[in-house]
Design brief:
The chain is of the alpha+beta class. 35% of the residues lie in helices and 25% in strands. Homodimer.
């Protein structure tokens, strides 16, 4: 409870009203400048004698009985998100960056007639205000500061949006700074993301991994099948690519003896944007020498479960819509070809002719991918028949060889590679390999990819001679994985990708 009831939700101000409010607030700023007497000049103080934070005060004095006085003097600052002015007593809710609030009570007896009048004339919603005074609990039990001194730390020239209404999704992503001010969930998501990253690093550290950073500007794109962004470096007079994956550089690190290596950083793919895709996104990739796709699957499960516990306190997470989702236990592992055969009611193997796959796709209304090959169509058919049936977290194992140019062939099943995709919440969250370490076979795979590129496949890889030269110096058997950080937040929070990215790219 505050000292007054919250106003009813009102419509957002019109452009004309905003213009008028801005003009009034600019006038108040000019008055602040005129009143400054120190050498610094300007409208706002450079520093303030703050002694406490609002969260700290709430932690120490949040249980005060109504009407209690502490005799403790404090000095804090916060953004004004609620204000009510009366004759001899003004109330304001001050909000800190984490959303914690405390009430400021500015009274005639506490600050004097002139200071009270200045408060009423100068302070607006959205302003950052410094107050000092005694910590008390109001008659209604609201933790408060009985103000003895105050000053405006920074003036909001534009008004805040309605604090009691809902910003549209478009407004939230375009003006995230406002979203963070008015919506608890937005701030909680930022904290959750930071917590997830810290948890990932802690788990890696416990397993002896080293974190590195690899180039984002590359002379040749590789490490994934995706269309790159192209830029030009004036210093070198050469075209460069924003990286689509750090894989080929991280593998160089493994060749160099960093047996357990990971990176959390940005990737860029010049492709579509939807509820699970963003052209710019955060990616985790990790490689462990003398492991394989089974060992890296175990590690991935541990990484995700530890992150869930760090954020939610349990491997059972609650999504934004209230749904509970269980990330605990051992996750299912199923074969891509076997699960597709069962769902389609007919046997499909790596030897199934492309013509039969195309006929099945046509019968099911499955659109053929561009530059269709056996593996691409198998994966499209699997998504059509099987993907929607997955409810629990599931590792989908053993992919077609021709769509996985960086992956080792299966040790016992011809025509497939030791690759898995992890599906959580109906989308692909991570992928893992037994890495291809034979440079001779890798060159052959690159040549096949180059042929696809020559036929117009913009996602196909090019021959990377520097990477091949590194492999020729000997890379140990290795398991590797990649996981989108934004998608991991989606799995834990139930939010869409534009909500999990702090400042997503929008048109």
């Amino acid at each position: 409870m505050t000292e007054s009831t919250a106003p009813d939700p009102a419509a957002e101000p019109t452009e004309e009203e905003v213009f008028e409010q801005k003009a009034v607030r600019l006038g108040k700023r000019e008055r602040l400048i005129a009143e400054r007497t120190d050498a610094a000049g300007g409208a706002y103080p450079v520093s303030l004698p703050i002694t406490d934070t609002i969260p700290d005060l709430r932690a120490r004095y949040g249980d005060l009985e109504a009407g209690a006085e502490t005799g403790v003097t404090t000095a804090v600052a916060g953004r004004v998100v609620f204000s009510r002015n009366t004759g001899k007593l003004c109330f304001a809710s001050l909000q800190s960056g984490d959303g914690s609030r405390i009430q400021a009570m500015v009274s005639l007896a506490g600050v004097g007639e002139e200071s009270l009048a200045r408060w009423k004339e100068l302070v607006d919603l959205g302003d950052h205000v410094f107050v000092s005074g005694e910590v008390i609990s109001s008659r209604r039990g609201e933790l408060s500061i009985m103000v003895a001194d105050w000053q405006i730390a920074s003036k909001a020239i534009l008004p805040l949006p309605n604090m009691y209404g809902e910003l549209s999704e478009e407004s939230r992503v375009r003006s995230r700074f406002l979203d963070l001010i008015v919506r608890d969930r937005a701030r909680e998501t930022v904290v959750a993301r930071s917590t997830v990253n810290a948890s990932l690093r802690e788990t890696f550290r416990a397993h002896g991994f080293t974190e590195v950073e690899t180039p984002m500007l590359q002379v040749q794109h590789g490490g994934a099948s995706a269309r790159p962004f192209v830029t030009h470096a004036n210093a070198f007079d050469a075209d460069l690519y924003l990286r689509i994956a750090p894989e080929l550089f991280l593998k160089r690190a493994v060749v160099g003896g960093i047996d357990r290596v990971f990176e959390i950083n940005r990737n860029f793919r010049n492709e579509g944007a939807d509820s699970t895709h963003s052209p710019e996104f955060a990616m985790l990739e990790a490689y462990q020498a003398y492991s394989d796709y089974n060992g890296i699957a175990d590690l991935t499960q541990e990484l995700i479960q530890n992150a869930a516990v760090a954020v939610a306190g349990s491997t059972t997470v609650t999504w934004a819509d209230g749904t509970e989702y269980d990330l605990g236990g051992e996750w299912d592992r199923l074969s891509m070809y076997a699960s597709l055969s069962e769902a389609a009611g007919r046997e499909i193997t790596p030897e199934t002719p492309l013509g039969e796959l195309r006929a099945l796709a046509a019968a099911e209304g499955v659109e053929e991918p561009p530059h269709v090959i056996h593996g691409k169509l198998v994966e499209e058919l699997w998504e059509h028949f099987v993907k929607s049936q997955l409810t629990r977290p599931t590792f989908v194992m053993d992919f077609p060889l021709d769509t996985s140019p960086l992956v080792r062939e299966h040790r016992s099943i011809a025509g497939v590679v030791e690759k898995w995709d992890l599906y959580v919440r109906g989308f692909e969250l991570a992928t893992g390999y037994s890495e291809l370490v034979d440079p001779v076979i890798q060159r052959e795979r690159f040549v096949e990819q180059a042929k696809l590129a020559a036929r117009g496949d913009h996602e196909a890889m090019r021959i990377d001679e520097e990477f091949l030269r590194a492999l020729e110096h000997g890379m140990p058997p290795t398991g590797g994985m990649g996981m989108g950080i934004d998608r991991l937040l989606m799995a834990i929070t139930g939010l869409g990708i534009r909500e999990t990215i702090l400042f997503p790219l929008v048109k």
